[in-house]
């Protein structure tokens, strides 16, 4: 009986840790080099520093992702509802040409960066990326206020942004 209770408590602890909200980016994410639309290299940490003091919505997407494209009208509605927020779009596209074509084709408004190694690479792994689109919110202090939602109209996302106003 004691073994069963012990195993149950270990199991419950593991589940609660897995569902815990991550509040800071891992060093691997921060040091990951991305590309700007001007084809310059920049680390994710430098990107976050650039927008320090602002609330940020990070949209991880790709031009080849049908769910990302279907979600763009929701992103535009979110931008209209929260115009004072900075919107960072981090693309998982395979190359610069597909990425920039996607930005233009889908009229994606915001700040744009391209990861260097795709969804399964260093950045994707460090944020536990298992699906795109993926939305995260970073508050004015640089703390992750919301680590993961996959819909731009998710109530968690909207409530988080309302709480940061």
Automatic annotation (TrEMBL):
<dbReference type="InterPro" id="IPR012336">
    <property type="entry name" value="Thioredoxin-like_fold"/>
</dbReference>
<keyword id="KW-0676">Redox-active center</keyword>
<protein>
    <submittedName>
        <fullName>TlpA family protein disulfide reductase</fullName>
    </submittedName>
</protein>
<dbReference type="InterPro" id="IPR036249">
    <property type="entry name" value="Thioredoxin-like_sf"/>
</dbReference>
<feature type="signal peptide">
    <location>
        <begin position="1"/>
        <end position="20"/>
    </location>
</feature>
<keyword id="KW-0201">Cytochrome c-type biogenesis</keyword>
<keyword id="KW-1015">Disulfide bond</keyword>
<feature type="domain" description="Thioredoxin">
    <location>
        <begin position="23"/>
        <end position="165"/>
    </location>
</feature>
<dbReference type="InterPro" id="IPR013766">
    <property type="entry name" value="Thioredoxin_domain"/>
</dbReference>
<keyword id="KW-0732">Signal</keyword>
<dbReference type="Pfam" id="PF13905">
    <property type="entry name" value="Thioredoxin_8"/>
</dbReference>
<dbReference type="InterPro" id="IPR050553">
    <property type="entry name" value="Thioredoxin_ResA/DsbE_sf"/>
</dbReference>
